[in-house]
Specification:
globular; 11% strand; 6-stranded mixed sheet; Rossmann fold; alpha/beta
Length: 244
């Protein structure tokens, strides 16, 4: 797939148009522009309820697939939270996993998150997150996918625009300019349940072995991956770890 196949209008024109819309308006635009080729990805993390609720408000809510990459290493609280939100919001959830089971991966490569090696962490992410997502996007013939990425989360994300091309598809970020306060007030207004780990001090949560609550020295995405990196590779242009 290449850019001429997926662009409904010039990219800069799309950015200018989307910059004037609300988060909900951006989702409506994408669902109308790309119809069956539009999906939302979720991690069922601390702030995931906001985007999932917005999707639920669209007229086509029952047909928009929600892609969830289950690494097999998520906290018990995340699995329970996912079940709760899926039922409460009547989500069209599509779950994808690596074809390599956690047990098989550990047998072949060991516990990659325990080596304190950036190379091993990237291998882990490639196997458990990035390649499963690419398979999901291929299987569902996705042209444009939305995520809850926000510019203030990492240095890399501060360089993003509301819509960019990533690996041959368009990546939409409806909440790009939102702050933590915006997230909090939206959830309060719509009475959305918090992730169970939020009350235990987590501002970001991924796999159980690579997430920890905030402390005096670490906050936000710094609490992930043992501080070795802030991005798992899903939201970057190339396939991080490819060829390892």
């Amino acid at each position: 797939m290449n850019m001429p196949d997926i662009m409904k209008m010039p990219l800069e024109e799309a950015r200018n148009h989307l910059s004037q819309l609300s988060a909900e308006g951006r989702l409506i635009w994408a669902s109308q522009q790309y119809e069956a080729g539009f999906v939302l990805t979720t991690s069922f993390g601390i702030q995931s309820a906001v985007m999932l609720h917005m999707i639920q408000q669209l007229k086509s809510k029952n047909t928009i697939p929600i892609i969830w990459i289950d690494t097999g290493y998520l906290p018990v609280e995340t699995y329970c939270y996912a079940e709760k939100l899926t039922n409460q919001l009547n989500l069209n959830l599509q779950v994808f996993q690596s074809p390599i089971s956690p047990a098989r991966m550990e047998a072949l490569y060991g516990k990659l998150w325990e080596t304190n090696s950036l190379k091993d962490i990237e291998k882990y992410h490639l196997i458990r997150k990035v390649k499963p997502l690419e398979q999901a996007l291929n299987d569902l013939n996705v042209e444009c996918w939305a995520s809850g990425v926000r510019g203030g989360q990492t240095e890399h994300r501060r360089s993003m625009t509301v819509i960019d091309e990533i690996r041959g598809r368009l990546s939409l970020r409806p909440l790009l300019e939102w702050t933590n306060k915006d997230i909090f007030y939206y959830m309060e207004e719509h009475n959305l349940p918090q992730h169970p780990l939020f009350e235990k001090g987590y501002s970001s949560v991924g796999d159980w072995h690579s997430s920890e609550p905030e402390g005096k020295e670490i906050k936000g995405r710094e609490t992930r991956f043992g501080g070795l990196k802030q991005e798992c590779g899903i939201h970057v242009q190339g396939l991080m770890g490819e060829g390892i």
